[in-house]
Amino acid sequence: MLLIANIDHQINEEITDSEVRLIGADGEQLGIMSSEDAQKIADENGLDLVKIAPAAVPPVCRVMDYNKFRYEQGKKEKEAKKNQHVIEVKEIRMSPGIDTNDFNTKLKTGKKFLADGDRVKVSVRFRGREMAHTEIGTELLNQYAEGCADVAQVDKAPKLEGRNMSMFLSPKPTTPAKKPAKPKAPKAPAAAAEEEK
What we know:
Blueprint: E1 19-23, E2 29-34, H1 35-44, E3 48-53, E4 60-64, H2 66-83, E5 89-94, H3 100-115, E6 119-125, H4 134-147, E7 152-161, E8 164-171, H5 189-196
Parallel strand pairs: 1-4, 5-6
Antiparallel strand pairs: 1-2, 3-4, 6-8, 7-8
């Protein structure tokens, strides 16, 4: 089956080529003929003549219901967009003096984002004198990465940029579970008796 790209197609009287290769409504090859003859065949069937491969020599035309085709193409595109998962980057912000409960809450939130398939940017903002103790931020981010180790991998290690230190986590690629090996079938009693003789 020929795939037709989503472009504006020449239809019916717009096709002015002297010769075209025609494909019938049910997909059979009708051969090379003049565009006038191809248009007559389309009219006899109450359908449209649509140029689907203009670059071919001679161009390929097909007899079809063009409005129905465009409707189905639109439906397929909507379905494809619906099935596409856009990976978002979610941000989680912390301060160097974060409380344990707050840290655990932010860890839980990050794991939820990762489970949904999104990347997570974890950042620590330093204010005033906190800049003298950036190692606290590194420890905090490493601790966060360890907490998410079962569901995430570190894309970008903790890095200080201005007053912010951040790192990126992405969900671990999921591998399908391996099937357990089948146990060997026990030998039939008759065969076992034969071997004992």
